[in-house]
Amino acid sequence: MIMNKALTVLSACVDVRSGKRFTRGDEFSPAPNLEQAKRLIAAGCLPEEALKAVAGPKSDAEAALEERARTEAAEEAKRQREAAAAKAKRTGDLKQDGPTVAEYVAAGYPASQYPPKGYASRSTPEEIAAAVNAEKQAADLDNLTIKDLQDLAKVEEIELGDASKKDDIVAAIRAARAAR
Questions:
Q1: Both ends of the chain: CA-CA distance in Å?
Q2: Which positions ≥6 away from 48 have C-beta within 8 Å?
Q3: Could you write out the three-class secondary structure of 50-83?
Q4: Which domain-ending residue is among 66, 93, 120?
Q5: For 53-92, how does the pLDDT look when each residue is reduced to its tens digit (9 = 90+)?
Q6: Which of 46, 81, 144, 146 has minimal CB crowding within 10 Å?
Q7: Are residues 137 and 74 in the same domain?
Q8: Where is the composition biased (Basic and acidic residues) (predicted)?
Q9: pLDDT band per the 50, 70, 90 thresholds, residue 16
Q10: Mean pLDDT over residues 85-100, rounded?
Q11: Total structural domains within the chain
Q12: What b/e string do you get for 53-85 counting C-beta neighbours within 10 Å, with b at 16 or more?
């Protein structure tokens, strides 16, 4: 009897179909089915070659399907590489891991200077416009008088409490707007 090295047992195991026990060096016979071979390989009981030994010869249709799948995967990888290259060309050598406009403003930088030099924008044009508009409105508060700020607070239904200083009123309005 010729021993199939691909089915040589590497570690003790049991054939779940028959209950037969195999020890290291035995030939796993009869050959396991494909699923059992995968489990035995994963458990370290059979070598990787066992998969080829039990899979048997492939039909022309199976081989054609595998070749088609490999070709499609290669084409998809090529498309992704080309898309990444085109994006890099459009953005130049800009880094892609910069902050969003919200993160940039939260760090204390003005929205009007977004994106930071050397970084591509991670925010939509609408998000940037909203941040710049909010920044402009905040700057406009600083130019208003106390009376104008109090009138604005009434119109926007913002409770000022006992705030009478300009800085306190501006802070209350900004806090109320941010809470919305």
A1: 83
A2: 41
A3: HHHHHHCCCCHHHHHHHHHHHHHHHHHHHHHHHH
A4: 93
A5: 887 666 667 667 777 878 888 788 888 877 776 766 665 6
A6: 81
A7: no
A8: 59-96
A9: confident
A10: 68
A11: 3
A12: bbeeeeeeeeeeeeeeeeeeeeeeeeeeeeeee
Q: Which of 34, 69, 93 lies at the terminal end of a domain, its last residue?
A: 93
Residues 72 and 118 placed together within one structural domain of the fold: no
Structure tokens at 101: 């406009």
Domain of residue 151 covers: 101-179
* One-letter-per-residue 3-state SS of the chain: CCCCHHHECCCCEECCCCCCEECCCCECCCCCCHHHHHHHHHCCCCCCHHHHHHHCCCCHHHHHHHHHHHHHHHHHHHHHHHHHHHHHHHHCCCECCCCCHHHHHHCCCCHHHCCCCCECCCCCHHHHHHHHHHHHHHHHHHCCCHHHHHHHHHHCCCCCCCCCCHHHHHHHHHHHHHHC
